[in-house]
């Protein structure tokens, strides 16, 4: 599968360095609905990708090419799974292998080491790795990485330890692997991303949006495609989405206190490629009105910080029925305490 993805890089009509990443967990009929698609739904998603004539690419090869500024396939999509559930191997892998499509699994290693029946074994992961599937880091214990940040100075060392432990176990079993990490629950903060940058990691969240050449490589967006997001009508728009042409990627620490004012600036390149009034941003069901100054759109939400996970989503029309799409995640705490979910 990795061979075919690399061949696509060589043979493509390479125009814009853009990428859409889909995120799945379970592919089964008897697992939690919020994180599952049925095998039938998953097959419908693959058929939709085929009908849109998208190029399914190897996640690592494509992102590394984007970082270097190399030519990459236009209208590219990467498929990822979080947690090494056995049903991925049983139900999703045959459909992907039949199409020679690459994909990636972010593995939390403790369940594998413990031999849990719901998780893949090391032998299964080794089989997939040898077949070209990317096996990547999802920490050892799948705990919240930033929930202890107000409880003492050792929280960062503990978070890095579960990341490095997983990387070590993966490489002990499979050989040298790229340092690619998916944050459990999509949660991170600036201190963690800076530490991961020093250690050479590339990291992925669970917030929506397309990937561009100036994306923050320690907070890469992925579109959830399970549960309420499994609908093929809405998935189509996500598969065709494009990254906003920002002059630089908006940067803000996603950790906020309950009631804290939220502010973010979207800095566009020399010209905004759409009528400025078409930019739509949303927060918790509320439509936001951006304030423009030259080519920068500012968003401010008074008392916007809410307890738990929430986000600002922004879209604008792009060419040929496509949309630019950007999401900024937030994780709200109450007096230094985060919700345990």
Q: Mind explaining what this structure looks like?
A:
- The chain has helices at 2-11, 39-51, 59-68, 86-98, 109-113, 122-130, 155-174, 190-198, 232-239; strands at residues 20-24, 26-27, 36-37, 55-56, 76-82, 104-107, 134-137, 180-182, 202-204, 223-224, 255-257, 262-267, 280-283, 286-288, 291-293, 296-301, 308-317, 323-333.
- The longest helix is centred in the middle third of the chain and has 20 residues, at 155-174.
- The radius of gyration is 20 Å and the shape is globular.
- Strands 1, 4, 5, 6, 7 and 10 form a 6-stranded parallel sheet that branches. Strands 11-18-17-13-14 form a 5-stranded mixed sheet, with no helix packed on it. The chain has a 3-stranded antiparallel sheet with strand order 12-16-15, with no helix packed on it.
- It is built from 9 helices and 18 strands.
- The protein is α/β, with parallel strands linked by helices and 341 residues long.
- Strand 13 and strand 14 (286-288) form a beta hairpin.
- Helix 2 (39-51) packs parallel to helix 4 and helix 2 packs across helix 9.
- It starts with a helix and ends in an 8-residue tail after the last strand.
Brief descriptors of the model:
23% strand; disordered N terminus; 18 strands; 28% helix
In a few lines, what is going on in this structure?
With 341 residues, this protein is α/β, with parallel strands linked by helices. The protein has helices at 2-11, 39-51, 59-68, 86-98, 109-113, 122-130, 155-174, 190-198, 232-239, and strands at 20-24, 26-27, 36-37, 55-56, 76-82, 104-107, 134-137, 180-182, 202-204, 223-224, 255-257, 262-267, 280-283, 286-288, 291-293, 296-301, 308-317, 323-333.
């Amino acid at each position: 599968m990795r061979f075919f993805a690399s061949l696509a890089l060589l043979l493509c009509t390479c125009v814009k360095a853009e990428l859409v990443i889909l995120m799945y967990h379970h592919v089964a009929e008897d697992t939690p609905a919020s994180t599952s698609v049925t095998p039938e739904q998953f097959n419908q998603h693959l058929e939709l990708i085929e009908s849109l004539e998208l190029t399914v690419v190897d996640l690592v090869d494509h992102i590394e090419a984007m970082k270097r500024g190399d030519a990459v396939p236009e209208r590219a999509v990467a498929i990822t799974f979080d947690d090494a559930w056995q049903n991925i191997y049983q139900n999703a892998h045959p459909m992907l292998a039949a199409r020679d499509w690459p994909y990636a699994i972010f593995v939390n290693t403790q369940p594998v080491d413990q031999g849990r029946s719901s998780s893949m074994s090391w032998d299964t992961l080794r089989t997939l790795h040898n077949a070209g599937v990317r096996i990547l880091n999802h920490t050892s214990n799948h705990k919240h990485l930033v929930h202890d940040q107000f409880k003492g100075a050792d929280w960062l060392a503990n978070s890095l330890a579960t990341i490095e432990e997983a990387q070590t176990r993966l490489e002990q079993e499979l050989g040298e692997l790229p340092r690619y990490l998916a944050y459990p629950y999509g949660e991170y903060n600036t201190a963690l991303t800076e530490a991961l940058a020093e250690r050479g990691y590339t990291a992925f969240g669970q917030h929506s949006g397309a990937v561009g050449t100036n994306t923050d490589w320690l907070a890469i967006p992925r579109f959830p495609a399970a549960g309420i997001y499994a609908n093929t009508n809405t998935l189509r728009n996500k598969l065709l989405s494009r990254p906003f042409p920002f002059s630089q990627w908006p940067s803000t620490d996603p950790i906020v206190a309950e009631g804290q004012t939220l502010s973010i600036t979207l800095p566009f390149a020399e010209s905004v490629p759409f009528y400025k009034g078409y930019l739509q941003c949303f927060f918790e069901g509320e439509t936001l009105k951006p304030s423009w100054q030259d080519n920068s759109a500012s968003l401010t939400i008074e008392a916007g910080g809410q307890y738990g996970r929430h986000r600002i989503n922004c879209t604008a029309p792009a060419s040929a029925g496509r949309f630019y799409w950007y999401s900024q995640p937030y994780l709200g705490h109450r007096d230094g305490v985060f919700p345990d979910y």
